[in-house]
Design a protein that fits this description.
13 helices; alpha/beta; 5-stranded parallel β-sheet; binds 2-keto-D-gluconic acid; binds NADP nicotinamide-adenine-dinucleotide phosphate; 7-stranded parallel β-sheet
Length: about 325
């Protein structure tokens, strides 16, 4: 796409550098000026035609209302729970995201967290580095192969997790609002009912109001003291306080967490626990997948301004 200073784009988050390069090469970019420079933002706002956002970005109704020329919000990520899609739709503003290109990456991380927390990988690394090995062997871990896996949200990424778990000989079951008759796995009508039947509960739903605190104290109690929780969805889906209490009390065995309620802030209680593995929202964070996401997020903007159909609009 030829560079065009005619088209002005606001970024709603600190975006990956190569994505920023593509934007700068094609558009006039206002990098988060709504957060950093009220005067510059007020001057540019009437001309801004696109927002480039990330999966974690907040694009509330109030921001949309300040942008009378806004035509499209392109999300660099599959999750769009921070975008007020209803407010955008009322104005006929398109919203796009990056589904599918990150399925493998997020599923790989989910399995990595299952293995890391159950096989105590991070503790084992610390054990070797701190010289404890010479004093005796590490406590034993929990076997993953052949264990029972529950998936909360059997969508694009959930299915990719299930495929990987099959290779580990795991039995797989799932919950979601609607059963997927074509999926070869047993369906449970609630997260609590599923949790009671599995050893590992992996959460991979969207965030937002519909899933807020879906994993609460009741679900954690059902998972039980030998059960592990892995959350690669959004921090909002898990009641973090209830999780801390369950981990401290040994109501569940452990947790692998890539996402948190108030990122990048992680509760001190979680940092203090040995039976959790923590990663900083890196589900899609490889060079290869971030490039594929950037290409798709940019291609949606390009298609919109060229008058072509969007590649991946968010579902109606
Ligand atoms: P998807 O294909 O839309 O799948 C979402 C699944 O969640 C569907 O099975 C859906 O089924 C289920 N679901 C939705 N609301 C639910 C509810 N209230 N209760 C139970 N199940 C519910 O989405 P995806 O592409 O797999 O992505 C899923 C999410 O992963 C994203 O939205 C994002 O939040 C998160 N994510 C995280 C990272 C990371 O870096 N950690 C990276 C990418 C994505 P029903 O509609 O039938 O309920
Ligand atoms: C990224 C994500 O962290 O796709 C999503 O929904 O949460 C992740 O892939 C994000 O969008 C990039 O900042």
């Amino acid at each position: 796409m030829p560079a065009s200073d005619d088209i002005e784009v606001l970024t709603a988050a600190r975006l990956w550098a190569p994505m920023m390069e593509s934007l700068h090469a094609a558009f006039r970019v206002h990098d988060r000026t709504h957060q950093s420079d009220a005067t510059a933002f007020a001057a540019a706002a009437p001309r801004i035609r696109a927002i480039a956002a990330s999966g974690e970005s907040k694009v509330p109704r109030e921001l949309i209302a300040q942008l009378p020329a806004l035509e499209i919000i392109s999300v660099f990520g599959v999750g769009y729970d921070g975008i007020d899609v209803a407010a955008a739709r009322e104005r006929g503003i398109a919203v796009t995201h990056t589904p599918n290109v990150l399925n493998d990456e997020v599923a790989d991380l989910a399995i990595a967290l299952v293995l890391a927390v159950s096989r105590r990988l991070i503790e084992a690394d610390r054990y070797v580095r701190s010289g404890q090995w010479s004093k005796g062997p590490m406590p034993l871990a929990r076997k993953v192969s052949g264990a029972r896996l529950g998936i909360v949200g059997l969508g694009r990424i959930g299915m990719a997790i299930a495929k990987r778990a099959e290779a580990f000989g795991m039995s797989i079951a799932y919950t979601s609002r609607t059963a997927r008759p074509q999926a070869p796995y047993p369906y449970f009508g609630s997260a609590a009912a599923l949790a009671a039947e599995v050893d590992f509960l992996v959460v991979i739903t969207p965030g937002g109001a519909g899933t807020r605190k879906l994993i609460d104290a009741k679900v954690l109690a059902a998972l039980g003291k030998k059960g592990y929780l892995v959350n690669v969805a959004r921090g909002s889906v898990v009641d973090e306080q209830a999780l801390v209490e369950a981990l401290q009390a040994g109501t569940i065995a452990g947790a692998g967490l890539d996402v948190f309620e108030n990122e990048p802030n992680v509760p001190a209680e979680l940092l203090a626990l040995d039976n959790v593995v923590l990663t900083p929202h890196v589900g899609s964070a490889t060079w290869q997948t971030r490039q594929a996401m950037a290409d798709l997020a940019f291609a949606n903007l390009e298609a919109h301004f060229a008058g072509r159909p969007l590649l991946s609009p968010v579902p109606a």
